[in-house]
Records
---
Amino acid sequence: MRELEHLLPDLAPPPGGLARLQRSMHLQRESARRHAWRWLPATAGACALLLLTLAWLPGFVQRQQRTAALTRALRAAMTPPSGGIRVVDGAALALPSGQANVRIYLVQTSPPPATGH
Amino acid sequence: MTLREDALQASYRRLERPLYNVLYRQLWQAQDCQDLIHDTFMRVWERRSKVDEATLDALVWTTALNLARNRLRWRKLWRHVPLDEAEAMPHDAGGGDFLATRRLRQALRELPPASRDVLLLAEFSGLRGAEIATVLGIPAGTVASRKHHAMERLKALLGEPVDA
């Protein structure tokens, strides 16, 4: 028995309050789920991109290194020796090339000295 | 420490009626009260990961009273005058005597808000003095004295015989 029951009568709340709360909670859950799914394509795309990058990167680095080594080798091969080209143990015969900036030589090595008799 | 959905709904079933009775004597509008109760539980649900079920009811009361204070402040700020429902109150809900309801409303409004909260919680919440003190954030000893003063003042304002 309340002390002020005659002054403050007990009122019944309007019906449907709990159902409304349950609906709101359901909607909030759905909204959170949709929110999570909305990020899925972007996340999947980012993951795929990362995997592709990881798969492609070692090959790219290897190709770059090989190209650099080849370039170094070609440059070394094309650089003439500091003292000019000399033919050792043989003879070089200049041939007509037909072009001013192209020279053709016929190089023949000397046969090895005969041994024995 | 995560609040379960069924625990929140059980709390709603337990507290809806007392909350409505307390809030109605502050807002005097059924729809506002229902909205506020709904908002209170949704707010608690949004913070469910930090809510201890052992103190759930106290948290609901604290949240509801804070929201009611905000609503009253908002009304005062915007000079919002709610539609008086006294005439529309059903007879069995105590609305039959329009003048008595109006006088009661006026008398409650004249009480200091802190005393009014104590009085309404003591009347409807079913909480003990120490629990009311926790909900309102006041010392436990203050609850009894505030309740006594509020009751005497209310009776005086309504022309009821006051205890000696």
Note: Chain B touches chain A at residues 5, 8-9, 12-13, 16-17, 19-21, 24-25, 30-31, 33-34, 37-38, 41-42, 45-46, 93-94, 104, 119-120, 123-124, 151, 154, 158, 160 (CB under 8 Å).
---
Amino acid sequence: MLTDRRLLRAEPDFGLLTKLFQVNWPYVAVLCAVAACGYVALYSAGGGPEPYAWRHGVRFGFGLVMTLSLAMVDIRFLARFSWPLYAIGIVLLVLTLRMGHVGKGAERWLELGPIQLQPSEFMKVALAMALASWFHRASWERVGNPLFLLPPALLVLVPVALILKQPNLGTAFITAVIGFSIFLGAGMRLWQVALLLLPVPFAARIAYGHLHDYQRARITTFLHPESDPLGAGYNIIQSKIALGSGGLWGKGFMQGTQAHLNFLPEKQTDFIFSIIAEEWGLVGALFVLALQLLLILGAMLIALRCRNQYGRLLALGIATNLFMYVFVNVAMVVGAIPVGGVPLPLISHGGSAMLTVMFAMGLLLSVHVHRDVEFARREEFPP
Amino acid sequence: MKREGKRTTLFTRRALVMMAGQVAALSVLGVRLYRVQVEEGARYATLAESNRISARLLAPTRGRILDRFGTVVAGNDLNWRALLLAEETTDVAATLAKFNDIVPLADHDRARIARDMKHTRQFIPVLLRDFLSWDDMAKIEVHVPDLPGVIVDVGTTRRYPFGADMAHVAGYVAPPSEDDSGDDPVLALPGMRVGRAGVEKSHDDDLRGVAGQVQMEVNSVGRVIRELDRTEGQPGDELRLTIDMALQQATLAHLGDQSASAVVMDCTNGEVLAMATNPSFDPSLFDAGISQSQWEAWTSDRRTPLINKALAGVYPPGSTFKMAVGLAALQAGALTPEDRIVCPGYIDLGDTRFHCWKKGGHGALDLRGGLKNSCDVFFYHAARRAGIDAVADVARKFGLGTDLPVDLPGGRTGLIPTPEWRQKHHRHWGAADTIIAGIGQGVILATPLQLATYVSRIATGRAVVPHVTRTIGGEAQPGATAAEYPVLDIPEEALALARGGMFAVVNEAGGTARHARLDIPGVQLAGKTGSSQVRHVSRWAREHGHFNSAQLPWEFRPHALFVCFAPYDAPRYACAVVIEHGNAGADVAAPLARDIMTDALTRDPARREIAPGQTVAQG
């Protein structure tokens, strides 16, 4: 439907070159800077380009091509895939539960031939698209109607429940927050928010009862990490030691003893930030954190500048996703929240996360490129 | 569109709030990073260092103990042991079972292994068995493929070539107890030993050496990545004793199987040349642990094989004490060299009669005669005239009743009744007690080492102190020359008188130990006999002639003592012999002392040149 007449009529000279020019290049630069930090950190984590850094770079390269390609695609066209992608996401989640690969007591991975997929990562983006679609056509008044909010609430709860069942507490929480942020951006009334948040403490209590032992251990050891230095509190303590011993200026590139001597668990994924903080000190850590913040705020700015509701809400969802990644990961590394399998976007090693993040970035850039297009409210999406 | 505008405004407002929230949240993390990295940085840096570096101690080799001529008294043997590295085997129980088929493990071994397994981490080897024989080693090596994780390595174990002959001087080592481990971390290493007796104990710190240290970078499971730093330890100092092993063995041979002790000293400088105690024990047994039955056998033996009688055996000195009494009387001015005392065979004090050993009495005697004949009555009078305090004072000057600072553990003080002691333990000290003290009986007690020191001091007039080490780590120890010892404040003429009396005992007709004359031309022995009663002899038994000590049960017979020095005109060697329940000193102890002194004088270890590192063939 790219040949839709109205579309072409609206922007007669919106050619590929113009679109390329319209790409938010400073944002792409920040993206590359973050990925470069990731390369350096993974180089150190692997003690050389193998086994992490090189693959990280290649993945990012391919991802960047995908991102820029997506940016060229009209957001209105992409929007049409919101529902199918959401459906695919749900199917993949169900498949993961049925036949997923069990890693660390949780079924998170789905093996599709040579590709290992983490459907929950993909689901977050698909959910943002689906919710943006839903709210795109809703007027301010309709959003005020609780009945109108019921279907999108289900859209959020179904994947959250599926991810919780894996169980992947961190991603489930992030998914819920993404949904919540889009609700807020769409104009959900504040009294509704209050009503929604009221039962949260009770729900948390009940949820704690259903947690897996290792998840409970994470919470208890988070509260008293020194109680079990070689057991469950090990990760937190070792991570803090890595950070603290890094000091202000760090131990220098490849000089991190904590990481190189394997005191840090999962240093190339969840705890990559510890390596950065150990080797580059507070300065390096804050630098990476600032770059990530630029990425988040840049996404938010794209959302603000976008003139259609779908693009805005999608960008908001993607920004929230980035923010939650960074916040949960860094908070975990500094020992501020219990440990959960949440990577640091574009820095942690992992194909699935890289793929979904770059996919989201493509959508984001597309939103930016097409920020001013006329986006009809009804016709684009079947109700 | 108005509605569209409202939606946009709302979105903008909420998005801005969210952005503020995001900035705030990440700032909080930034602050937290600052706390952890900068404010608490130093603490975590130390933690990281200790995470990374594992220090391991290298067990030092224990210093050897040599005799004065370099003969090894305590050395080190290689000890082959089998260790198990738990991480290299998949099934610890199966490996242990297979090991047990090859080299049987005792129940206590198994209990210890199970305990060690629990307490050590996978990569630290646990001792399975040590003291492996060559056969066991070969068997283990052959079966190595079936024994994953089993390593054979070598440590050291203490070896005492002379065994029981030197057990009391050299002492022995044993595995450290938990109390010991507190003071030195090196003791926690497998194979480390602590000196438990003798020189091994008194010079434990010198012999132990300094542990080396390897600092290794380890990863999180403790596996060694590389060695960062290595400080070689220092092996323990080599100890050179004053003992002459040849003389020591000769002395022991003379003692035979009697429960006895003999000390030979260089009386000019206090070097102990032989310190023989019989019976003895095998010191190497302690390394592997003593069985209960062995321990009970030793401790219940009335001949006390575990006690070094030379310095922990206390005996009434009997007549050997008479020189001190005579010198005290001279010193107090209560007796002159010319004074004669008539011995009718007894003296009466109130209704108590104190007998001389010679029934008919000795007639009139001067001090020299008193010593020569060992006349009891003479010294009853001398003690009474001098008073107990003067006697105690002189006795202490000779080292009796004092803690001799000999470098061996377990020495006893003996007993000389000083005024303070009497105040505390014997408030009703009477004239009778002083009279009994005059012949070295009653409460008076001395060790053979004290007696040897006593004779040395009489012989040289200097306050020599006995010691058993010449060099530690090649460094000469103080006290090797006579000039280092102060001159006693007893007039030389008085001492000469005592020496003369001792000369007469051995070399003059009528002397109590005339049969103990030396058979070396131009060299004379000067000595004094002693027989000390361990049981009161009733007046009834004495008067009815029922007093024949040789017929008494062994433990009621008197001790036989002899103290002596030689050559008389230039004293060099002093000797004290105590034979427990050996009856009369003159009959048993004196000939024995003569034989020992003959060996000492002919071998002459004190004057023999000692080149460093030289080993003299035993002969």
Note: Chain A touches chain B through 50 residues (CB under 8 Å).
